[in-house]
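hiii so um. not sure if this is the right channel but i have a protein structure encoded as tokens and i wanna go backwards to a sequence. like what aa goes where. can anyone help
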């Protein structure tokens, strides 16, 4: 506790600082979303260090080369503004990468000094004139001191739609805005949509750009991503399906399309668990007027059977769950469905909607003693762990230190997964993703029993 003297009286100046945040920075999410647009280069308007930090985080998880351009602020730029640096950087990126799109996101520094990026881009386009065809410029305001990586992700997706979407004759196209999910989940969603025979635009699509095959030669911009012409068509779609329990229409791509072009917004939680997956498939059945394809009926039947087989191992187990708000909400509903009690649902986000959305999915939330904490860091979560005595931790790799300290098994989901291989290929969504999650949870419980037994066992 520190004190200061004010008007002759001692006053406390104690402040609580985040020691190990349960979130990542706003522009990181924007850079990830931009990587899901075809022939797009992410560009940070700020210091080189921001780009380096974000590249390191993304490469560690996805195991793919990732270029992020920067306007490279210095001391002079921080005082007098970054207009010159931004325009010079755009020229260099256009010349060297020849992109069709440049996704521009701001950082703390450029936002703090008040750079008017839309005005700078207008000046840049006017100065360039007809000298050369210019890339499409998509701008997202993403100050790191506000929000989380999820906010930056959604801001970039909304900006892409706001920049490119056009009005057109309504058709049976469906827009899919899945949120920040794994490349494996993106591929699975496309498989589901193709099985229904439904024309769709999925944005963003980094299933190839961040989980592709080997190259015979280096690509400055990896192949894959949602084409700009497809994004232009989102304004004429019959509906948009958007995942994210806490995502409000005013901040979402689907919300923009509904307001601007009258495209109905179907807002769903992430389809994790049987109930949530049923809800997603029911929406596809309604839109297409087709029954669920047999392959997915089979997946559902196998999952129901697995629930019955594995129930005796997981029922009554206690778990601390942490990560992005939308992932935590959907995972909590899934855990409740299989008989695991999520004694703490924690997130670094602060939408103010987390408990409300959890109550919608788990009506007996308060009766079962589930605690909900938002805007927390891992020190807060550790304090809760001392009291709640969980059996499992479920979340990303940033919880490893807590896992080791408390001798609790950590089931890794979401982003980032830095200390295991294949984080980009983990399934979370639908019957298939739920099956894999359920198997991992059951096997983790069984392994814990084996390890804690004095004799162990080799047969179940």
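sure thing!! here u go:
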């Amino acid at each position: 506790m520190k004190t200061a003297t004010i008007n002759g009286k001692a006053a406390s100046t104690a402040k609580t600082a985040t020691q190990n945040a349960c979130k990542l920075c706003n522009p990181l999410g924007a850079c990830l979303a931009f990587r899901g647009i075809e022939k797009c280069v992410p560009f940070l308007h700020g210091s080189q260090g921001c780009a380096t930090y974000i590249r390191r985080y993304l490469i560690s998880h996805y195991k793919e080369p990732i270029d992020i351009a920067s306007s490279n602020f210095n001391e002079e730029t921080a005082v007098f503004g970054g207009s010159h640096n931004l325009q010079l950087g755009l020229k260099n990126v256009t010349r060297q990468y020849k992109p069709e799109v440049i996704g521009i996101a701001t950082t703390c520094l450029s936002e703090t000094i008040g750079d008017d990026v839309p005005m700078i881009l207008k000046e840049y386009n006017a100065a360039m004139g007809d000298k050369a065809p210019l890339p499409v410029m998509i701008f997202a305001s993403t100050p790191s001191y506000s929000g989380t990586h999820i906010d930056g992700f959604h801001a970039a997706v909304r900006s892409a739609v706001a920049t490119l979407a056009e009005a057109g004759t309504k058709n049976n196209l469906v827009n899919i805005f899945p949120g920040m999910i794994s490349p494996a989940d993106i591929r699975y969603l496309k498989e589901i949509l193709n099985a229904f025979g439904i024309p769709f635009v999925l944005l963003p699509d980094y299933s190839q750009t961040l989980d592709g095959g080997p190259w015979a030669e280096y690509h400055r911009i990896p192949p894959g991503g949602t084409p700009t012409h497809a994004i232009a068509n989102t304004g004429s779609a019959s509906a948009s399906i958007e995942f994210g329990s806490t995502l409000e229409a005013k901040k979402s791509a689907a919300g923009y399309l509904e307001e601007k072009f009258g495209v109905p917004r179907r807002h769903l939680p992430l389809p994790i668990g049987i109930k949530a997956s049923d809800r997603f498939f029911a929406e596809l059945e309604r839109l297409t007027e087709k029954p669920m394809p047999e392959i997915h009926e089979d997946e559902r039947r196998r999952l129901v059977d697995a629930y019955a087989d594995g129930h005796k191992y997981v029922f009554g187990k206690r778990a601390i769950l942490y990560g992005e708000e939308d992932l935590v909400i959907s995972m909590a509903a899934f855990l409740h469905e299989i008989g695991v009690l999520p004694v703490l649902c924690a997130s670094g986000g602060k939408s103010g909607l987390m408990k409300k959305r959890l109550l919608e999915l788990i009506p007996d939330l308060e009766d079962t003693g589930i605690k909900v904490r938002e805007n927390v860091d891992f020190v807060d979560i550790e304090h809760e762990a001392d009291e709640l005595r969980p059996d499992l931790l479920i979340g990303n790799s940033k919880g490893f230190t807590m896992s080791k300290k408390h001798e609790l098994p950590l089931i890794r989901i979401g982003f980032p997964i830095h200390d295991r291989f294949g984080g980009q290929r983990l399934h979370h969504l639908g019957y298939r993703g739920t099956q894999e999650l359920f198997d991992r949870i059951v096997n983790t419980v069984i392994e814990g029993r084996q390890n804690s037994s004095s004799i162990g066992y080799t047969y179940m």
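oh and Residues 245 and 357 are 6 Å apart (CA to CA).
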